[in-house]
Amino acid sequence: MSALAKAKELIKRSLDNLEEEDLRTEFLDIVADNLWSRWQTRCSMPDVARYIEIKEQQLGFTSEVHPSYPKYLSHLGAALQSRFLQTSSIDDLDRAISMKRKALDSTLQGHSDRPVYLNNLSSVLHSRFKRQGCLGDIDGAIAMSGEALVSISRDHPDYASFVNTLGKTLQTRYWKLKSIEDLNESISMRIQALDLIPENHSERPIYLSDLGIVLGMRFGITGSMNDLNQSILRQEEAVESTTED
Fold first, then answer.
1. What CATH class has 18-106?
2. Which of 155, 236, 164, 152 is nearest to 194 (CA)?
3. Which of 43, 65, 68, 67 has the alpha carbon at shortest distance from 57?
4. Ordered DSSP codes for the chain
5. Contact (CB, 8 A) for 141 and 125
6. pLDDT band at residue 2 under the 50/70/90 scheme
7. Structural domain boundaries of the chain?
8. Rounded distance, CA 57 to CA 228, Å?
9. CA proximity to 182, closest of 154, 226, 149, 218
10. Largest CA distance in the chain
11. What is the pLDDT of residues 132-180, one digit of tens each?
12. What are the backbone angles phi and psi of residue 166, rounded to the nearest 5°?
């Protein structure tokens, strides 16, 4: 066989393998999506276990430079974190952090997915802090959340959610360190998030209630009647917005 013929054969094999791998990945994605939907509906442990297994398979035959590699890492991390919420397995939580950190590290600065990966890592670090109380985790969560926020514009669809996430992490650190600066900043973030979210948004009652809680916390420290009045007002608004048709 000539050198040219050998080259053509190698190219053909590469194309055949690429097509087969792409089809395999596509089929696995369909199965995984359906398993994830059923897991979220029924919380069946075999479903999330199989989902995790599929994502591990996809990572096993996907190059680290493949565009989908960070996505698979992120999906695996999300599944491990979700299972942790059901089982309280610290191993799942640690692996979730590892996968989400790898997803972030595999994503270039400026990529449209990077803010989401930053926010996701913040969430899982926050979860581990609440479980283990390591200050490095909550500091990391705040740093990741802050970086996610400054990397998107105010008209980004996730902006209000990212602002609220930062408010949550600052509130949690306040409980650890009792720093009034953290509490003040948490309140500021909660007010911004509320201002950004539409009146008819399904999560608006939660934002209202969360703001009422932190304002009540500050009243307990400063005795400010304005904080107490605003806290009551926001909680009443939260109740009213959940009873409207």
1. mainly alpha
2. 164
3. 68
4. --HHHHHHHHHHHHHHHHHHHHHHHHHHHHHHHHHHHHHHHH--HHHHHHHHHHHHHHHHTS-TTSTTHHHHHHHHHHHHHHHHHHH--HHHHHHHHHHHHHHHHTS-TT-TTHHHHHHHHHHHHHHHHHHH--HHHHHHHHHHHHHHHHTS-TTSTTHHHHHHHHHHHHHHHHHHH--HHHHHHHHHHHHHHHHHS-TT-TTHHHHHHHHHHHHHHHHHHH--HHHHHHHHHHHHHHHHHHH--
5. yes
6. low
7. 18-106
8. 53
9. 218
10. 90
11. 999 999 999 999 999 999 999 999 999 999 999 999 999 999 999 999 9
12. -65, -40
Which pLDDT belongs to residue 19?
Answer: 52
pLDDT on residue 27: 79
pLDDT in tens, 79-131: 999 999 999 999 999 999 999 999 999 999 999 999 999 999 999 999 999 99
Token pair belonging to 183: 């509490």
Total-model pTM: 0.84
Closest CA to 214 of 192, 176, 185: 185
